[in-house]
């Protein structure tokens, strides 16, 4: 399940709780589009903002709505103790893989992070995906640490935060990491802006934010890149430049995609937990114009 | 209560829970030393690693052990909803002030943070201290935002993350902020390394990590600086250079102070929640040597 398009849906939520119906519809739409896997409760899925009970409930809804598509959920938490409990509950409701970010408040060192993965690896029975995104976890992996973690039982994929923009540098970056990890461990790119470059450079998967809302658009890029048509993947990704520009303008993909979901009627406003808010005013109009013009689907 | 030494004790905890007896003893020691206030459940107090029930319990223990010394606790949480609940529970157990960090996972913008403080300000009855530390919250305040927040009801102090090392630049920095906030709002320095420079530059308070474990050492610096004896404050702080060097070496004060607490028998090992750990091996020996040589108390 660690190849192709892994689509990361939002979890619509506000001060009243999780909008379970809207979430279920988002997941059903991904199953209908035949994405390769679903990454529920990722950063985009707001796992960090939910209690353990809420996360288990959302994981269960995802599994029920996903049909034959395998579901992965994040078990990220500040404490190893809570990570282990989340892993247990997620496996009980039928998730097929676990995504583990080294979430931090006080800065973590490499040995803390290795021991976290080691402990979790020894206590789960489904595959693990390593989550590498300093933008949310504030932890920087070295490739050497990736190499050590990738040797652990159950570790099956590494979600990397992006690649250099230039294709030959992207290729070098992916090959350097590949040289340090076992061959059964896949590398998946995240940071949607880097998706085509990353897959063209050898990443086997795309852990995708837009794929969680616009799976057909993301699938077209994924299928082109993974079938070897780098030119077509690049063309399709470059068509989306106005969307990438919005991600830069609004500090990342998260709020833009949450705003797009409200605009398209997938979710009801407010769909984010305070103090987070979707984008209002002129920015919202810009987003509406871009998602319409690009015919995202 | 927002002047002088505000001492931030550790909350000893491990996989079995909070060591309530050790915590109580740490707080009693601060009361005995006559610190000006106690900042329980700050970043040093590990608030981020505890459940709401555990935080309320620790706040209660702090109030009970502090005697006449006023207690402040952090109400930081990713969601406004949880911040409000924490504020309510902390006030019920008798804390005298609330420390509010803009904790983030997805990046916050200035308007998110302003609305967080605005909402909390409208829903509390005790003073608020603004917590500015990008190292843990990953949010960067501008002075303009500080100015807007400082106008809100109940806001009584700003905990700043440090000052420039050069005394004239530190003075400029403190005066610039002072010019933007009401006169009843104090400025307190944090980052122990900057304490003497900060107070000599006009900060009225020191929100202190070492003060939570070695209150007499921290009080001597505070009393010298706030009585106008900048020279003596500087001398006392410079004596602690080997300790500041350890903070730099081990990525901040947190693990060094937690390790020192174990070494001095204030807490039992392990005293941090996994995946965090105190420092072992050669580093631990270095810390033992420094705290003994400096006669911290």
UniProtKB/TrEMBL annotation, chains A, B:
Identification of the protein by name: Dihydrodipicolinate synthase
UniProtKB keywords: Lyase
Segments crossing the lipid bilayer: none
Naturally occurring in which organism (per UniProt): Pseudomonas trivialis
UniProt binding sites for pyruvate: 44
Similarity section: Belongs to the DapA family.
Annotated Gene3D superfamilies: Aldolase class I
Tagged with keyword S-adenosyl-L-methionine: no
Active site per UniProt: 131 (proton donor/acceptor), 159 (schiff-base intermediate with substrate)
Signal peptide: none
High-level lineage: Bacteria, Pseudomonadati, Pseudomonadota, Gammaproteobacteria, Pseudomonadales
Lineage: superkingdom: Bacteria
Molecular function as annotated in GO: 4-hydroxy-tetrahydrodipicolinate synthase activity
GO cellular component terms, A-Z: cytosol
